[in-house]
Automatic annotation (TrEMBL):
Keywords: Membrane, Transmembrane, Transmembrane helix
Subcellular localization(s) per the UniProt record: Membrane
Membrane topology designation: Multi-pass membrane protein
UniProt main location, coarse: membrane
Name this polypeptide is given: Probable sulfate permease
Transmembrane segments: 171-190, 197-215, 235-257, 269-292, 312-334, 355-373, 409-431, 451-473, 506-527, 534-553, 559-576
Every STAS domain range: 600-677
Residue ranges with Basic and acidic residues bias: 121-131
Gene Ontology CC: membrane
Region: Disordered, residue numbers: 108-132
Length: 725
């Protein structure tokens, strides 16, 4: 038996009811089996035990609480226990490295053999009355934690060992994100035409709803510049009520997408398209921070505003460089302190490193830059100045639905805008969620994200705000600051709403250039620099896809158009490559009974891209001149995909019939046979006439056949023969 078990303890944690838990346990079981280790699961609620017995195929149960099962094919043992037996578990020969409270993932190093998996074996290892057993320990995150993403939180070593630090980091990350959300929300609202206060409130509502109900903890949502190109023209033509109606309708459409699980179609986006999207958004995020180095225009911040001059520009650049520099070197300082030997001389350095870890690096950069600006009285714009400039132009929150236009032309514009907002918002949110999944080494729920985004946009529209979606830059800033759960997003939304209604406190003294420099730093980190080195190693078409999608994203700011171009271009490249890979091998029968028969073995897909090349592989005139009366086409290495392929087969059958040759098909897959059956009334009857199919092996006797396909298609041929009779 393996002597190093993994013990997973779900004490007091309802995440064991997660519908994807058994999938993650399966992945962990396979890894443990490959490492010759043993996996034990402790489930302390009766409902949890019932869930494992139902979903994990557990067979043996003792009183409905202790259940054991060997995972199929892995040799890993699962044990589910209830609360009363948790602290009474004794595993002989095992020593604990540390003890924790309930709710922790655990790993125990073994020095002896593990107990058996049967109820009798488990009973032999129960302690005597009053004897305290061994409790699970905290596991390294890279061993177990990455497979378990709960509904409430991500289970990892930090959360289990330091719940207070985890909470503090989430709150501080939310405060940092709120500082970055505020200028973006106000600028997007001004660019659309609605009052800035309405844009800030709608961003706060959207961020709160997606953080609480979304499928990706740690992801930040808000107003996006990609949606301005659709909302601004509608506002100029029909007013704020039309924009609010379009936002509400887009939320309803996103709810529809979530209910019917249409978010899964994001898988159709190729990896080069994804790289181009990430690089384009990173460039947009970096270039949009120039507002911090411009003077405020008469109607708010605009691209044509004049640049800062003299001491103001110099001070803004110094503050920005200081904030970015501190945020960059902060983790390096902590690592340097932790490398010291933990003796009496360097003990204070380890304590200092533990203390510095409580402060996220982006927030450290903002604090240092703020202290410098206050001490030197630097002439830089503060967050309070920005709020006064923007909120002074704000009107009342809400929308007058009586002003909603009623003409058919106006509603056509509203519906088309709503459709664009829903599609672009979902696309940018799901792509952002994919990147956050990679950063956090976990997987979110596209369905829940679609539903939460729809609910958030409905709430934003009812308050007269603008639509929003997932924000790549702010989401990466959140994860970089230590925000991996839902608390960081809720904190950011709360701070945003409080600042919008009451701009006071220490946050209004924060320099705007410091926030902008952090967003530039995040954009530089999110840019796919590795794709530049891949250009020589990947096909030219993929390189062109990356560059074209990135440039189109930057030039048009239309994420949907850029991604759609990447998907279509990738599909055309694939179709072109596949169209050149269809071949045919010819076989001539030498048997007396099958003389006059020719066989063709087709390799490659048959679809609209290969139909013309497929037709050129055959020569009915030559086959007639050589005296062949029957032709058999072997499709065991091919597949019929679409109507163009059916039309090519029909045309080929008619050509052969004009020369007095009958065409027979063999080795069709189930889908190909179904296509032929459904198109029977429109296809030449000689295509599906299989009366002489039993002679196929004599025609190409030396070619290996697929028994399952042969039997399946013989049944189909008999059924067709019976129908013909």
């Amino acid at each position: 038996m393996p002597d190093t078990p993994h013990i997973i303890d779900s004490c007091g944690d309802q995440t064991a009811r997660h519908p994807r838990l058994h999938v993650r346990i399966s992945a962990l079981a396979s890894e443990a089996s490959a490492m010759h280790e043993r996996l034990v699961v402790h489930c302390l609620f009766t409902g949890h035990a019932r869930y494992f017995r139902r979903n994990m195929g557990v067979e043996n149960a003792l009183g409905g609480f202790i259940v054991t099962n060997t995972f199929s094919g892995s040799g890993v043992r699962f044990v589910v226990r209830n609360r009363s037996q948790c602290n009474s578990l004794v595993v002989p020969g095992f020593r604990a490295r540390r003890r924790t409270r309930c709710g922790a993932l655990a790993r125990v190093r073994g020095t002896g053999s593990a107990p058996g998996g049967t109820p009798d074996a488990e009973a032999r290892h129960r302690p005597k009355p009053g004897e305290r057993g061994l409790f699970p320990l905290v596991a390294p995150r890279e061993d177990i934690g990455r497979y378990f993403v709960g509904e409430r939180r991500i289970l990892d070593e930090r959360t289990a060992r330091y719940p207070l630090r985890s909470t503090v980091e989430e709150v501080l990350a939310g405060i940092t994100v709120a500082m970055a959300l505020l200028p973006a929300a106000a600028s997007c609202a001004l660019a659309t035409g609605v009052p800035p206060l309405a844009g800030i409130v709608s961003t706060g509502l959207l961020c709160a709803i997606t953080a609480a109900l979304g499928g990706r903890p740690g992801m930040i949502s808000g107003t996006s510049a990609a949606l301005i190109i659709l909302q601004a023209p509608l506002y100029q033509q029909y007013g704020a009520a039309a924009v609010a109606a379009a936002v509400v309708l887009s939320g309803i459409l996103q709810l529809f997408f979530g209910i019917y699980r249409l978010g899964k179609f994001v898988r159709l986006i190729s990896y080069p398209t994804f790289l181009g999207f990430i690089s384009g958004i990173a460039i947009l995020t970096a270039t949009s921070q120039v507002y911090a180095f411009q003077l405020p225009a008469g109607t708010g911040l605009s691209p044509g505003a004049p640049w800062l001059q003299g001491n103001m520009l110099r001070a803004a650049l110094i503050v920005a460089a200081l904030a970015a520099g501190v945020a960059h070197v902060w983790p390096l300082i902590i690592q340097r302190l932790e490398r010291r030997r933990p003796d009496s001389t360097h003990r204070w350095q380890h304590r200092l490193a533990e203390l510095l870890r409580w402060l996220p690096s982006p927030l450290a950069g903002i604090l240092v830059a703020s202290i410098y600006a206050e001490v030197t009285q630097a002439p830089v714009r503060r967050l309070g100045d920005f709020l006064r400039d923007t909120l002074a132009q704000s009107g009342a929150i809400g929308v007058s639905w009586a002003a909603l236009p009623s003409t058919p032309l106006a509603w056509m514009a509203i519906l088309s805008t709503a459709l664009g907002l829903a599609f672009i918002g979902l696309l940018e949110s799901l792509l952002t969620m994919t990147l956050v999944d990679e950063v956090t080494e976990s997987r979110g729920s596209t369905r829940r994200e679609c539903l939460a985004l729809g609910a958030g946009n409905i709430a934003a529209g009812l308050f007269g705000g603008v639509g929003g979606c997932g924000l790549l830059g702010q989401s990466l800033l959140n994860t970089k600051s230590g925000g991996r759960g839902r608390l960081s997003g809720l904190t950011a939304a709360l701070c945003l709403l409080v600042l919008a209604r009451n701009p006071s406190g220490l946050m209004i003294r924060i320099p705007v250039p410091a926030i902008a420099s952090l967003m530039v730093l995040v954009a530089l980190g999110s840019f796919e620099w590795a794709s530049l080195r891949l250009f020589r190693a990947i096909p030219l078409a993929d390189s062109l896809t990356i560059v074209s999608v990135a440039l189109m994203t930057v030039a048009t700011r239309n994420v949907a158009l850029a991604v759609l171009f990447g998907v279509v271009f990738s599909a055309l490249v694939f179709a072109y490559k596949a169209s050149r890979r269809i071949t045919a091998q010819s076989f001539i029968s030498e048997d007396e009974q099958t003389r006059g028969w020719r066989g063709y073995r087709i390799d490659g897909p048959l679809f609209f891209g290969t139909a013309e090349r497929f037709s050129r592989l055959f020569d009915p005139a030559r086959d007639r001149a050589e005296g062949h009366e029957h032709v058999i086409i072997d499709f065991s290495g091919s597949r019929i995909w679409d109507a163009t392929a059916l039309e090519a087969l029909d045309s080929l059958a008619r050509q052969y019939r004009s020369y007095g040759i009958r065409l027979h098909l063999w080795g069709l897959s189930r889908d190909s046979a179904r296509l032929l059956r459904e198109a029977r009334a429109y296809i030449d009857e000689s295509v599906t006439n299989e009366n002489a199919l039993y002679l196929y092996e004599r025609v190409v006797a030396d070619y290996p056949t697929n028994d399952s396909l042969e039997v399946e298609y013989e049944l189909f041929a008999k059924r067709e023969s019976g129908n013909a009779a």
